[in-house]
Design the sequence.
């Protein structure tokens, strides 16, 4: 076995970002489940069809290696295809146009502050420095189109590029198209049951089931696929797996919805951990603060609630008062909102006709959609709104007056950064959505080296095994800032793909 | 493999506290490292000689089963024997004498509040309800002697019994004596290298090295010991393992000392995790707020610093002002102190001659010891103290006046609970210690069922494997309250011992 001392050296080298040593052989690893016969052989198998997995597969093919991409669900894209389509990119084209000064260092500082410095600094550096080149490649190689720059909570400046269609699907669809040109079509309804290690503890293939139907857990036909070079774990997080997340954070029980697609379960990360992958920080689960209790999952109401975080405000309907900086980090906002919901109060996101006009420009047709869906409500007058939610008139109109005053003073009583986005809220019709946080992102996960190699519980790495995206931990620390996940997935997905393709 | 659905059911039953199912067989588990020949066979092997391990071994022998207890260090007791000897016991004899009303429910509420509700409620309930019976047994069966009741940070009332000699050694020594009467002497310098699973994934024995010397990692002779009934993991936490703890919390790097004995390393928990034990909440590492930078490890200066938390006060020498409720929970206090230390300021624990007199009654001879050791300093006048640390006179004497005022008003400006312990601070000589937090306790660890069975990463349990004490996670959540660890170790050590002894 590797000694305690050599373990430390190995991990030390991982932390230091130098080439990680291979875990020394040990008793338990000397047990292989390599099948007598492989049903199929390729160079690389990628698990997951979100931003990270598709990026990894793209790099593998670009490097001229064979690649099989699998996903257990019936449709590709995981959480990425339903995500908001905002990518954190210091130095993006809109910042340049607006003359906003920014840098990877500034982004890193904001990530570390929100992350309570639990972030692994080498990972933060990689993501922040990789952001602009990744954004350029998405434009130049994939044809991804961007519309404007948004200001996400916890970021010191607007630095998040929004896709042309206001969704992650703009990126995923173009990644899928680029992959298809390279001859790769993801195999859907194919679930990974086991990562197969050889006698030396090297990951050499997978036991999967084809024709799997999510929710029918015994469905599908078993198959063994060999991977000559290696395997990339890009199966995302586990926020939709109530029992697994409850072990780490008993607060987030059945009473909390998740924004995630139903396939965001734990069997992938359990398998990785069970065959020796080191997990870290899994008890940091992020709630998205601005989701709606009036619809299932991620929904669409958050688009309005999000817009009001810089162009309107949030308040407690029972008191008529704001209670949190609408641009604070997600944890601060979620904790504050949950405290008010526990009092049995409604929390509302408020904006006026000017807010609505800008929103319409940002996301054409969306206001109509959320009104039709019954997750946003329109009121011609403040009186009508106050009546509908029995909001104390005086307190509420004092709140509006304070916000309007901050437009000129640029000083917000709750410390919100006031920029040109905020205009005085004066003219009806007025619009509100209800707010209730939902479990959104698992910050923790598999520990990887700077080369996206999976770190072994026993120190060193598990040869042939790579991971990227939400399946990994360390990038975001305690609290992830909005729009940083897309950057993480694109940057580290690329690294994983390039590195696995290099293996002999 | 066990299905996602059955996994949830299994874990659900664990959470619900009903009998946990055995993890369904799966490929990886079907690889055994059972030796051709065992060197020795017994019923139960206990790893670790702290409160939990010794309690488990005691129960095993009481149940009439054979037991081998191993410890890798040259001396027994781990962190327990150097611990402060305070056990949280609502309803203890001193509370009764002082007419302090308390209950297991009140203790549970305080633990959950400090633990940010990350605690597993079934574990909290077990510990709180088991406290008083465990305390009685320590008196009746082991002859442990207690001296007085202390008020630890985060507890609503004084509810922590202090051992006669003011150290955990009072308990450990009597546990060792009781075990020796039962024919068990711990085998020291015996390290566990591997937990051996059979083909069904049941823990059936250990690969150990006898004659191991800590720090000489390859030392010792390999030996295989079979355990007919099972194995109890009571190897404690990993706070002294900088590389391991840094993976979970990069803040606690080489710049932080630990209060733990040097053997508080990670090889035990790594091995458990590597053979399939589910870990939780390992990134919650607690710093002991009141340790001294003027001595290595736990040291002795904390005794004075602790006494001043209710009988004196803590302040920033550069400002002369208090800055934190000295009885707040450990995380609040550590974070506040670290912030002031980062400014390059000294943080001092202050008390006067009255404080010293009570301290002398509590811990005879200790004041003399800490003065001799050069970790506490005596000043005949305030002027002398102010001069020695260039403390701003006016601000400091205002601080003293405020504290003295709170003795009569019972209102503390920083919200400290003021009780009869606090007397006006007026007469020299005055004493101070310097304060600097040290990494003290790993709240996270191995997930267990209410029967102390180790939960498998794949759901269900690992048959034959039990764990208790700091090696486990879930009892304390995010923040452990002082004196709750002893209770946890005694209560859950007993449960682990009784349960493993029952196995066929």
Sequence:
């Amino acid at each position: 076995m590797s000694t305690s001392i050599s373990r430390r050296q190995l991990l030390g080298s991982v932390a230091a970002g130098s080439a990680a040593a291979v875990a020394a052989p040990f008793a338990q690893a000397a047990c292989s489940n390599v099948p007598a016969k492989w049903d199929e052989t390729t160079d690389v198998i990628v698990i997951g069809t979100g931003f990270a997995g598709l990026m990894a597969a793209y790099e593998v093919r670009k490097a001229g290696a064979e690649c099989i991409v699998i996903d257990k669900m019936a449709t590709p894209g995981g959480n990425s295809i339903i995500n908001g389509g905002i990518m954190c990119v210091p130095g993006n084209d809109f910042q340049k146009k607006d003359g906003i000064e920014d840098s990877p260092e500034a982004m890193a500082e904001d990530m570390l502050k929100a992350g309570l410095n639990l972030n692994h600094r080498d990972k933060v550096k990689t993501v922040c420095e990789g952001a602009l080149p990744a954004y350029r490649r998405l434009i130049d190689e994939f044809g991804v189109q961007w519309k404007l720059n948004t200001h996400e909570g916890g970021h010191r400046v607007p630095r998040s590029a929004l896709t042309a269609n206001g969704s992650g699907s703009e990126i995923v669809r173009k990644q899928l198209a680029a992959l298809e040109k390279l001859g790769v079509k993801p195999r859907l309804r194919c679930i990974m049951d086991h990562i197969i290690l050889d006698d030396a503890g090297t990951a050499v293939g997978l036991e999967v089931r084809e024709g799997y139907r999510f929710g029918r857990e015994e469905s599908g036909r078993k198959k063994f696929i060999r991977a000559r070079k290696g395997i990339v774990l890009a199966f995302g997080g586990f926020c939709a797996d109530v029992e697994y997340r409850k072990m780490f954070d008993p607060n987030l029980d059945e009473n909390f919805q998740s924004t995630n697609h139903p396939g965001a379960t734990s069997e992938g990360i359990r398998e990785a951990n069970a065959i020796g992958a080191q997990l870290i920080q899994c008890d940091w689960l992020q709630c998205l603060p601005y989701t709606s209790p009036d619809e299932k999952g991620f929904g669409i109401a958050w688009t309005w609630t999000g817009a009001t975080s810089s162009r309107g405000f949030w308040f407690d309907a029972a008191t008529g008062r704001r209670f949190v900086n609408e641009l604070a980090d997600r944890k601060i906002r979620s904790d504050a909102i949950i405290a008010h919901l526990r009092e049995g109060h409604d929390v509302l996101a408020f904006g006026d006709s000017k807010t609505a006009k800008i929103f319409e420009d940002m996301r054409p047709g969306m206001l109509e959609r959320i009104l039709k869906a019954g997750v946003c409500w329109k009121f011609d007058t403040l009186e009508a709104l106050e009546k509908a939610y029995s909001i104390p008139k005086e307190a509420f109109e004092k709140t509006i007056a304070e916000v309007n005053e901050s437009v000129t003073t640029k000083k917000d009583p709750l410390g919100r950064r006031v920029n040109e986005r905020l205009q005085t809220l004066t003219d009806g019709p007025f619009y509100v959505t209800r707010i209730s946080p939902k479990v959104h992102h698992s910050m923790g996960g598999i520990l990887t080296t700077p080369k996206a190699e999976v770190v072994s519980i026993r120190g060193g790495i598990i040869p042939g095994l790579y991971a990227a995206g939400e399946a990994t931990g360390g990038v975001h620390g305690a609290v992830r800032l909005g729009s940083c996940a897309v950057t993480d997935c694109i940057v580290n997905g690329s690294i994983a793909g390039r590195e696995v393709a290099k293996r002999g």
Remarks:
- Chain B has 15 helices and 18 strands.
- The radius of gyration of chain B is 23 Å.
